[in-house]
């Protein structure tokens, strides 16, 4: 019996050789290859994070319009930013003088990146921002100054403000900064907005007028 | 063709010589996979134009043969037809191997519509191709809700994460064409990167019974399969065009398949989808548009004895996130919760602005398998995945153009699997897996939520299946996994110390001066054991019982370990925990199925005890210059989940049928003795369908989807100060929205042009009554209602 046929030969290669051991060896070397590939990869840590958006220092600087030496500074400092566990510390430099009128400006600073953010908000993007104020417990009269930055929509930004300290009292001043509001309105001077997200929201407590 | 010519020439040349026609050919037919004889096979002798039948021992005899070529075509019920030819030059004996169990061995398909389960004893439901086509314009998460007990956890209505029996994200394992999806599945707003149109069949397996796929599927496994390969010379395809009123969206998908009788195959598929802002019954949902395009190609050779495949798929999604959900601090959240309408409502447009996501996913797979006679099948697979996720937030100035979150996850996997199926009554399957994963997070100007890390996985498993008797099948398996995570992370010094890591993990610190940061190299090794065993008992012709026990073990994912920072879109600080242990689940399930000509019902119950269950919970408020942020901390507790899923259909008449899908689930934190968060409420879906096959396969159905109010939820409310009034207010983030009942309409007909070409036309109306509602499992429920009425039309051309 002498049979040879090309069709049969191919079948023979397919399943007559039981080369399982060979296959196993192939797998083993492939796995080893992968392990080597893995161990060769770079050890990149992505770099130390830079935090360009954080506002660590928020300051309201008040100056008596009749006495440049009568200043009040209230500030909130959060050295580890929005998501750090440290609670912001507040400093109120002293009491307001009853009967005096003050002008105030806002200062925003990122101490982590050593970056001034005030200009970004008040010069570059006043159209996207809006300051809102609130006074609780204090006998004060508040208005947006005539020389305040005017937004393209005609509303005053709330960067430069005027405060009249009336009678002796103690309470708090709230400062909020909103970003990308749907609408803003300064008709009641303190300001209202809808649809924006908060960039700054601080309630300065222990403020007094003497 | 050449072979035929040669054959003809040879046959012709034979006649030219004097013939010696006294030879005998003895043949023996054996089964390829186990060597058993094949009786009653038909053998067609081409040269003699004669038929023979093999005897009890698989043998046959051809006498009085002349020398020359002998061509035999062997066919047998359940076997692939095989043609062999020999040169006869004397008495000849040949053993011929044919495979009798092609279908049972899941190798080659005879028809495209065949559906096959992945498991034998697990709670598995298969969603077939014709059902999936209805979801062409939607997402994987939407389609999976076809299965009773499967819900979804959403961010809006385009980010849909599947949820099986109350569990989601890392607790579900998604396999796309046998590749485990590695696409940063840990986040609730990270939807699976799958184009539903690339799937031809989806299996949903509740629990972790399918050990070959992984040992950490505490919730379940979703197996997505492309078209089965048919060994026929054929070219076919499908094109679907759809449009919808809500979101003014369109979708276009097309696929083409080419198969050869030799086993070669190739296919290509692509999808385009877009929609603009969706709308609720009362207002537009600004910035909820989606743009998606995807394609996949596949080619290879598939034969019974060996085969290979190369597959590549790509998906690119750009998803807008509801503008009103972008909030700066907890006060914005108060404003949103207290307002019945979202704070930003604008006119419809297709534009997608910040906040938005851009996600690209590449998947490349190649595999090879070979069968050995009397042994089984050996498969080898390599796959590579690249997942790039960009999340854009509303940021100041130029930063607005820059993603706040930028993560690239690359994964290489090598898989070897051996399936010993020479004895169909006692199959054994074992395998080995190695995986390398690398996450790359460049600097984006905000702190990384997930750090750079490298992950190494190794897994090995053995599963076995015994057919104990005609009515009883038993399966069991065990798996071991090793995971190593090697991360590089900058912690803020204040956070590192506040968490007490400076005491517990001082050895992770990399020495050096990093200012206010601590640079660390956390390395964790996890050893996990998982196991599964199940039994199937066929009670009688109409009913069967399944019982299953699974042990699953899931190590903490990178988010659970390393999360550390402000999640802007959620306005909360999320904190992981380096101290976490793997989560261990013990799940017991029982299924009863009954089917007769009129009624089909499946009743699935489960009891799942999860120790060291990881979840996010509010743990207080943290102050900053931006105001207060709620802190959501990952915590571990012991949880128990149990429930019942019912799926039934009753054919009232030949034309009318009624269907019901009901699912009841409870989840409790047994350590704190309180309900678990985000557990789906009781829901029941009832539908009535009229079908008339004589009238272009016409069908029309009306469904009611009734979702109850979740009355068991943990109280995670917290207090905060309203900056304008100075008053303390309670923020209710816990109370679920009220119950709702939605009605849906669906109708379709199929027009056949010829044997292979038909057109399916479908019209659907979702939320017919335009009901306003909010869904407890939608993260944007604090900000806006869910979708109003949506009319969809779809044309499907099969050719």
From TrEMBL, chain B:
Pfam families the record matches: CarbopepD_reg_2, Plug, TonB_dep_Rec_b-barrel
Any one GO molecular-function label of the UniProt entry: siderophore uptake transmembrane transporter activity
GO terms under biological process: siderophore transmembrane transport
Mode of membrane association: Multi-pass membrane protein
Domain TonB-dependent receptor-like beta-barrel: 343-768
Family annotation (PANTHER family): HEMOGLOBIN AND HEMOGLOBIN-HAPTOGLOBIN-BINDING PROTEIN 1-RELATED (PTHR30069:SF29), TONB-DEPENDENT OUTER MEMBRANE RECEPTOR (PTHR30069)
Protein name according to UniProt: TonB-dependent receptor
């Amino acid at each position: 019996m002498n049979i040879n046929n090309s069709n049969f030969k191919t079948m023979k290669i397919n399943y007559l050789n039981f080369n399982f051991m060979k296959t196993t060896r192939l797998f083993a070397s492939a796995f080893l290859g992968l392990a080597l590939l893995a161990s060769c990869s770079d050890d990149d840590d992505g770099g130390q994070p830079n935090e360009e958006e954080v506002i660590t220092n928020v300051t309201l600087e008040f100056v008596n319009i009749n006495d440049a030496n009568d200043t009040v500074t209230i500030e909130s400092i959060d050295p580890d930013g929005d998501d750090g566990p440290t609670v912001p510390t507040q400093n109120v430099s002293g009491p307001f003088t009853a009967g005096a009128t003050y002008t105030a400006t806002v200062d925003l600073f990122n101490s982590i990146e050593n970056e001034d953010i005030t200009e970004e908000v008040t010069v570059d993007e006043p159209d996207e921002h809006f300051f809102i104020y609130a006074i609780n417990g204090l006998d004060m009269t508040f208005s947006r100054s005539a020389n305040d930055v005017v937004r393209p929509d005609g509303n005053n930004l709330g960067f430069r403000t005027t405060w009249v300290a009336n009678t002796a009292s103690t309470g708090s001043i709230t400062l909020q900064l909103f970003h990308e509001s749907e609408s803003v309105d300064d008709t009641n001077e303190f300001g209202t907005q809808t649809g924006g997200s908060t960039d700054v929201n601080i309630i300065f407590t222990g403020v007094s007028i003497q | 063709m050449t072979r035929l010519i040669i054959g003809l020439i040879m046959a012709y040349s034979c006649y030219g010589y004097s013939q010696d026609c006294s030879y005998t050919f003895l043949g023996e037919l054996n089964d390829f996979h186990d060597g058993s004889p094949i009786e009653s096979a038909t053998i067609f002798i081409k040269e003699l134009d004669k038929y023979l039948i093999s005897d009890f021992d698989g043998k046959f005899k051809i006498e009085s043969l002349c020398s020359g070529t002998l061509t035999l075509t062997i066919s047998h019920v359940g076997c692939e037809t095989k043609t062999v030819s020999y040169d006869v030059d004397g008495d000849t004996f040949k053993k011929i191997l044919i495979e009798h169990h092609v279908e049972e061995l899941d190798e080659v398909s005879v028809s495209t519509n065949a559906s096959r389960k992945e498991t034998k004893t697990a709670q598995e439901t298969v969603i077939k191709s014709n059902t999936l086509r209805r979801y062409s314009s939607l997402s994987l998460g939407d389609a999976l809700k076809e299965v009773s007990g499967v819900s979804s956890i959403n961010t809006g209505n385009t980010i849909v994460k599947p949820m099986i029996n109350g569990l989601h994200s890392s607790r579900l394992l998604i396999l796309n064409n046998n590749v485990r999806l590695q696409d940063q599945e840990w986040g609730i707003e990270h939807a699976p990167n799958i184009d539903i149109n690339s799937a031809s069949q989806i299996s949903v397996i509740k629990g972790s019974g399918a050990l070959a796929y992984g040992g950490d599927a505490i919730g379940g496994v979703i197996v997505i399969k492309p078209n089965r390969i048919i060994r026929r010379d054929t070219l076919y395809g499908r094109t679907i065009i759809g449009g919808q009123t809500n979101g003014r969206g369109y979708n276009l998908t097309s696929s083409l398949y080419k198969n050869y009788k030799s086993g070669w195959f190739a296919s290509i598929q692509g999808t385009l989808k877009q929609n603009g802002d969706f709308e609720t019954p009362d207002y537009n949902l600004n910035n909820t548009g989606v743009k998606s395009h995807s394609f996949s190609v596949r080619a290879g050779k598939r034969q019974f004895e060996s085969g290979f495949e190369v597959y590549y798929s790509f998906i690119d999604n750009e998803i807008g996130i509801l503008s009103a959900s972008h909030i700066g601090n907890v006060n914005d959240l108060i404003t949103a919760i207290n307002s019945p309408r979202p704070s930003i409502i604008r006119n419809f447009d297709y534009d997608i602005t910040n906040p938005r996501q851009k996600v690209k996913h590449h998947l490349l797979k190649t595999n090879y398998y070979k069968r050995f006679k009397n042994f089984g099948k050996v498969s080898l697979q390599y796959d590579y995945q690249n997942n790039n996720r960009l999340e854009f937030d509303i940021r100041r100035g130029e930063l607005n153009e820059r993603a706040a979150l930028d993560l690239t996850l690359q994964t290489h996997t090598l898989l070897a699997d051996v399936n010993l199926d020479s004895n169909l009554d006692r199959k054994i399957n074992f395998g080995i897996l190695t995986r390398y994963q690398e996450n790359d997070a460049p600097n984006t100007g905000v702190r990384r939520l997930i750090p750079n890390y490298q992950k190494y996985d190794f897994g090995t498993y053995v599963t076995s299946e015994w057919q104990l008797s005609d009515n009883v099948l038993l399966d069991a398996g065990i798996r071991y996994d090793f995971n190593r995570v090697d991360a590089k992370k900058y912690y803020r010094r204040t956070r590192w110390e506040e968490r007490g890591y400076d005491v517990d993990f001082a050895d992770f610190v990399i020495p050096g001066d990093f200012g206010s940061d601590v640079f660390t190299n956390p390395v964790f090794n996890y050893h996990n054991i998982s196991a599964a065993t199940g039994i199937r008992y066929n009670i009688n012709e109409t009913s069967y019982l399944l019982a299953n026990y699974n042990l699953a073990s899931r190590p903490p994912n990178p988010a659970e370990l390393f999360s550390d920072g402000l999640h802007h879109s959620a306005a909360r600080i999320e904190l992981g925990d380096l101290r976490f242990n793997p989560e261990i689940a013990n799940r017991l399930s029982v299924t009863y199925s009954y089917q007769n000509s009129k009624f089909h019902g499946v009743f699935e119950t489960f009891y799942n005890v999860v120790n060291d269950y990881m979840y996010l919970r509010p743990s207080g408020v943290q102050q900053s210059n931006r105001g207060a942020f709620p802190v959501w901390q990952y915590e571990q507790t012991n949880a128990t989940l149990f429930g019942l899923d019912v799926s039934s259909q009753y054919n009232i008449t030949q034309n009318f049928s009624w269907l019901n899908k009901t699912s009841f689930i409870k989840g409790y934190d047994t350590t704190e003795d309180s309900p678990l968060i985000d557990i789906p409420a009781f829901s029941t879906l009832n539908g009535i369908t009229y079908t008339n096959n004589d009238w272009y396969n016409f069908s029309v159905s009306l469904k009611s989807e009734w979702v109850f109010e979740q009355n068991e939820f943990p109280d995670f409310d917290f207090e905060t100060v309203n900056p304008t009034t100075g008053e303390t207010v309670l923020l209710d983030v816990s109370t679920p929205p009220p119950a709702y009942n939605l009605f849906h309409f669906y109708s379709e007909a199929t027009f056949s042009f010829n044997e292979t070409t038909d057109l399916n036309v479908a019209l659907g109306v979702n939320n017919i009554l335009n009901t306003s509602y909010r869904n407890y499992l939608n993260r944007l429920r604090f900000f806006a209602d869910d979708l109003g009425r949506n009319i969809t039309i779809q044309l499907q051309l099969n050719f």
